[in-house]
Amino acid sequence: MDKNRSDNIGNLILAFSKAQNEYPEFNKNREGFYKYADLDSVMNEIRKILAKYELSFWQEEGFTADKILYLESILGHSSGEWISSATLLVPPDPNSPLTPSQEFGKRLTYQRRYSAFTLLNITILNDPDDNDGDTKVIKKTSNNNDKISSEQAANIVNKITKCKNGDKLLANIQSFNKINKLLNLPACKYESVMSYLKNNEGI
Prior knowledge:
Elements: H1 10-20, E1 30-31, E2 35-36, H2 39-52, E3 55-63, E4 69-77, E5 82-88, H3 100-119, H4 150-161, H5 166-177, H6 190-200
Antiparallel strand pairs: 1-2, 3-4, 4-5
């Protein structure tokens, strides 16, 4: 991916800001090792709101020039304007009791949920990585020009040190995001990078 937005996004921003004001609160409706709001139930509600303002959302997979698999989430507007966000997909864990296809499917499902919530500015409180609070949608705005903080960069480095192939993962992150140091990472990519590293811990 070389670009993550159309040349103009004024109409999209206006429509999206109106849509966000109608976001409802969600209850956790699935339970595995933890309770969570699943992607289908959330998106069934969100898509109705997006359609009202001539917005659409979809996800697709692809490969970078370095043959790294990624998931791209796209938000489009009837004007032809669009923005997107991509995150790297990790290979199946060879030590998992699941088959490679089952393991990959599990990780893809998690990443689809995580990436959709990130691009659409849906923050789920009391998700697996949160400590308290209720699950609901937080209306917020983000600026793709913002960079991660020093503390966030330190969190990424800490995650990298827990991965056996940390040097390779860091190189992938920098190559994929076209940065030469972590502090240049866009703030909007922080959560997806942390998710990518979390999935690679111990591999």
